[in-house]
Sequence to fold (81 residues):
Amino acid sequence: MDNFLYFILIGAIAGWVSAKLIKGESFGLIGNIIVGVVGAVLGGWIFEQLGIVEENVLYALAAAVVGSVAFLLVIGMLKRK
Fold:
C-alpha cells in the first residue's frame, strides 16, 4: 500500500512539474496524477534503455518528469495534426 501512495505522490508532482514546463499551468490534481503516472512508466522505460537505473526518490521523480514531458510533447504533436 505504501508503494502505491508513493507512486501516486511522485506522479502528482511529476505531472505538475511537466505541465508547468510544457504549457505553463497545471491540469488539476487528477490530471497531474494521470500525466505523472503515465510519465513515470514512460520515463522508467526511457531511463532503462539509456542504462540509467537507480532506486531512490530523485531518480523516480526525474524519470517521471522526463517521461511526462515526453508524453505531453507527443500529445501536443498529435493534437496539432
